[in-house]
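Chain A, query sequence.
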Amino acid sequence: MSDETTVTLDQLSCGCSAVIVRVGGDRALRRRLLDMGFVHGETVTLTRLAPLGDPLELTIKGYHLSLRKSDARCIYVEPINALT
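Chain A, predicted structure.
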């Protein structure tokens, strides 16, 4: 994992995709995020933002879900365009 290209999920721009490199947070939050499909190596796309910027709408594993920005800050990703 390169610290230069790693950002948290809440820092992605709308329409951007990224690969998950680490899921943090307390034990309960981490377990919930992993159960929702936020696992190492999975691709996630930020598809839309709510009018006030929270929550985020994401696409992962072929389904859409909403996630609070505070929870998205626990997911570390590498944007796809930074991998090339």
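The longest strand covers residues 17-23. The helical segments are 27-35, 69-72, 80-83.
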